[in-house]
Design goal:
With about 300 residues, the protein is an alpha/beta fold. It has three domains: about 80 residues, Arc Repressor Mutant, subunit A, CATH 1.10.10; about 90 residues, Periplasmic binding protein-like II (D-Maltodextrin-Binding Protein, domain 2), CATH 3.40.190; about 100 residues, Periplasmic binding protein-like II (D-Maltodextrin-Binding Protein, domain 2), CATH 3.40.190.10. Strands 3, 4, 5, 6, 9, 10 and 11 form a seven-stranded mixed beta sheet that branches. It has a two-stranded antiparallel sheet with strand order 1-2. Helix 7 links the parallel strand 7 and strand 8. The longest helix has 23 residues. The protein starts with a helix and ends in an 11-residue tail after the last helix.
């Protein structure tokens, strides 16, 4: 068996990008060259690595087994020249997935500080909900996830990070806005603006607040935190959001905070695939994140 790094690179690219066409464009190869390379690899290991579904290639069980090893071998190969060079700086591209609040409120300053300290400029940042980030970690499309929600997926390692504070907001014109103490009974038949399935703020509301209310309705489901704030301000309903996200609207007087009798803290997480090779770059970034003491040390001013 003579598996080459080129074949593994083609395989990993197809696994991440889902089609031969996309992989060919990313690798600056022809579609024919990519197809031949994949075919040669499958012939050498005597296993098909993808199921062909219409125009897409979907990793099968054999492909899932090979992906972590292929990903690690490619990263280690890129690091070989660095072992014998004098340049001790971090190399490679770091692909980060961050859920909405973290991506918009924390990672800009976090990455700025990381770049200054380590002079590493090659990072990609994807902002999505926790569910989407977990799926991309499973597919080895990103290196690490910084999420507001947790996960039960056994293949992902969960590292507790910093704590975040949630808050409940309403329109300044709402009758609830003038009340100093909000009882659960006063929230009976309330309407709520929620993020989409898979988001951390929705998970917090469903697990912690919804069970306390006798009856509540979903007014809207929105995938934008700012849209939720604007909808609350317009009087459409209530919302439960991270204080980091709602703080500017509270300061500007666009919305009001409801004081309810509930512990409103939640845990942020660092998520990594258990089989992901932790390069010097990834290890350094993990350690850098874990040096954060609280969300205020990296939030935007």
């Amino acid at each position: 068996m003579n598996v080459s790094l080129k074949q593994l690179n083609v395989f990993v690219s197809i696994a991440k990008l889902k089609t031969v066409t996309a992989a060919a464009e990313a690798l600056f190869l022809s579609k024919a060259a990519v197809s031949i390379s994949l075919s040669d690899l499958e012939s050498q290991i005597n296993h098909s690595l993808f199921d062909r579904v219409k125009n897409r290639l979907v990793l099968n069980q054999e492909g899932v087994k090979l992906l972590p090893l292929a990903d690690e071998l490619l990263i280690r190969a890129k690091n070989i020249p660095l072992i014998y060079g004098e340049d001790m700086s971090l190399h490679g591209q770091l692909s980060i997935g961050a859920s909405d609040t973290i991506g918009n409120q924390i990672t800009p300053k976090l990455l700025s500080q990381f770049r200054v300290k380590y002079q590493h400029k090659s990072q990609q940042l994807l902002i999505a909900n926790t569910k989407s980030i977990c799926q991309k970690l499973i597919n080895f499309e990103i290196d690490i996830g910084l999420t507001e929600g947790s996960t039960q997926l056994a293949s992902l390692v969960k590292i507790p990070w910093v704590s975040d504070e949630m808050c409940v907001i309403c329109s300044t014109q709402s009758a609830l806005a003038s009340k100093k103490n909000i009882s659960w009974k006063s929230l009976t038949n309330s309407e709520w603006l929620l993020r989409e399935e898979g988001s951390g703020s929705r998970e917090f509301f469903i697990k912690n607040i919804a069970p306390e209310i006798i009856d509540w309705q979903e007014a809207f489901e929105l995938n934008s935190t700012e849209a939720i704030i604007n909808s609350v301000s317009a009087g459409i309903g209530l919302a439960c959001l991270s204080r980091l996200s709602a703080e500017h609207a509270l300061v500007e007087g666009r919305v009001a905070e409801l004081k309810i009798n509930l512990v409103m803290s939640r845990q942020f997480w660092l998520l990594i695939h258990q089989d992901k090779y932790q390069s010097p770059l990834l290890k350094t970034f993990i350690d850098f994140c874990l040096q954060m003491k609280d969300v205020n040390s990296a939030k935007l001013n």
